[in-house]
Amino acid sequence: MTLGAILKREDPRDAVILKKDLHDRHFSLESLPKGSVIGTGSVRRVAQLRRRFPHLVFQDVRGNIDTRLAKLDDASSPYCALILAHAGLTRINRADRVSQTLSDDSILYAVGQGAICIESRADDRDVAAVVSTLEHLDTALRCIAERAFMRGLEGGCSVPLGVWSELAVIGGSKARLLLKGNVCSVDGAKEVRGDIVGEIDLRDADKAKSVAEQMGHDLSLKLVELGAQNILKEIRA
Hints:
By secondary structure, this protein is an alpha+beta fold.
């Protein structure tokens, strides 16, 4: 099996969904009272947000989006807010519930968040040719870099590893790819963070993907040099 195409990405950022009365009063994570309970089932989100918002309390919450929103809205709910992927809310037409969209100063998102890919048989050239026409190159390059970064650190969904990527055309067929990455300890006490910037020629998609993948790998090595492996060893232990 192979990834035949990566489709155009929805907004990959994380979003804050406040309880209605707090939303109406224009609260944010920064302004919520000390001890406010934030619901999320993501180790990555908890690790990063604990570091930046130590006055908040984070509790696990499970279920699909509608189930989680129902738990938030329940009168007896302990939660003041939830953290969810903006893309998921948009896709079920619930983006109206977003109270705050978080920037990279607050949290780096999950690898590939907001992107959908089509998987096909690697040896089926006819299907591959059809599927490849659906690929969104901007999204593919960003996700390839993000995935290479994760592989370099041997990360996964249970590791507090975040990314942030941006691709901007700088003239003609040239584009600049920015990739940020971090690794946090589960308690948020330790963080290793870095970034890398590279120039990509969009005329050759295969070569462009190779450059993006190398950038992700290089960023993982950069974070290893900064001590990321020590944090990951503690988490795995």
